[in-house]
Design brief:
The protein is an all-alpha fold and 237 residues long. It has 12 helices and no strands.
Length: 237
């Protein structure tokens, strides 16, 4: 019977799309629970399965079902998401029920939205003084931005740019003013490349004696204006 259950579990995995995150968590959970019920493994996923302490055969059956339940879950998780779970402390002996709770906390839409709120709050308060270097500051800023943009792709760019700038202002006023002007000139049309350019160009005041950041920004503004003028000329022609 155990061999049949294992084979049925592996067959079920062929019809379940890999869990990638909050984007398909609801549909993934629906399919996982439907297959678990068909395989009589649902009690292991919801934590209601009781392990018998009296009969050896019952213990063996419980262990087999638990192992198959874990295979059903782990086998249906995309590799990238599985790495996230491992980084958060997932152990190889985690029960099927605990796995489901981990995934709910990591990948459900509601939890993802709450995490994005928390990351946004951190990003809005981020300050250069709390980091040993500008490199560490920009790295953490971009990490927060990446998680926010994954949840809210249409609004994260300008939020991230202004938050990063406000946090580094006391350390390089010239660069701050140049980039702030650039963001304003973009009128909200701030691209991912613009944000990456900002992060790469930032320097502490003592590292930026020739105000290279400000010069770089003004060059970018000129390029953007030339592109805009060129497109208008083409339209008029």
């Amino acid at each position: 019977m155990s061999t049949t259950l294992c084979q049925s579990t592996l067959q079920a995995l062929q019809h379940i799309d890999k869990l990638r995150g909050y984007v398909n968590y609801d549909s993934w959970r629906l399919l996982i629970m439907a297959n678990a019920r068909a395989l009589k493994l649902a009690s292991h996923l919801d934590g209601s399965a009781q392990r018998s302490s009296l009969r050896p055969r019952a213990k063996e059956a419980h262990a087999t079902a638990e192992a198959c339940a874990r295979v059903l879950i782990l086998g249906s998780i995309a590799p990238d998401l599985l790495l996230v779970l491992l980084e958060r402390g997932l152990q190889d002996n985690t029960s099927a029920a605990d796995l489901m709770m981990w995934l709910h906390a990591t990948a459900s839409p509601r939890e993802a939205t709450e995490e994005a709120h928390n990351d946004l709050a951190k990003l809005m308060r981020i300050d250069r003084k709390d980091f040993p270097s500008m490199e560490a500051y920009t790295k953490e800023s971009l990490n927060l931005w990446a998680r926010i943009s994954d949840c809210w792709p249409n609004s994260a760019m300008v939020i991230a740019a202004m938050s990063i700038l406000e946090g580094m202002r006391p350390y390089n006023e010239n660069a701050y003013l140049g980039w702030k002007h650039f963001v304003i000139e973009k009128k909200g049309m701030f691209s991912q490349q613009n944000l990456l350019d900002l992060a790469v160009a930032l320097r502490d005041r003592q590292e930026d004696q020739h105000t290279s950041s400000s010069v770089h920004v003004m060059d970018m503004i000129s390029e953007e204006e030339e592109k805009s003028d060129g497109s208008q000329s083409t339209t008029e022609g």
